[in-house]
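Question: does this match?
>
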Amino acid sequence: MTDFTIAAHPREENGRRPSRRLRRTGMVPAVLYGDGKAARSLSIEARLLRKLLPDERAYTHIITLRFPHGNETALIRDIQMHPYKEEVLHLDFLRVHAGERVRLHVPIHLLNEGTCAGIKAGGVLHRALVEVEVEAPVDRLPEAIEVDIAALCIGESLHLSQISAPAGVTLVPLLHEDDKEIVSIHNPRTGAEAEEETPEATA
């Protein structure tokens, strides 16, 4: 799905019981807030969300909510899922406009795992971060932060300060001098090594 426009319907009733009734009709309750405007209750067809949400890009791209009397542009801010079903219970949308700088968590994609020097040498990959908070103009939010690990060797790691973010994108943890580790390659412990480190039992 490449068109991030979705039909939205005004919702008059709020609360648990009206929300349950709404879900039984195939609709999902949601709220739209931000940009200095009053919060707006709405609902979206569950079948449309099942098409939209599997696309990872939907979480970092502007979504146009098409109401019967005008459109709103927003980002998905939060999704409440059913505890054990693949079912969306509620969504939060944040109003945005072109040029506005926003903060959002985006996934970290590791590149060249298959040719990583440390993995080819028998090392074990450890992922310390799977996503990172970024700040960027809303129309330049990256779909993901890509990290090339081809040259990473056993005993080495990569931190946020060692990667290049896309132009105009700031890695928020670095603003707070929090240079998080992204990934590292560990030397696997063999059974023989483990036995050598175990003190011998005394008689």
Observations:
- The chain has a mean pLDDT of 89.
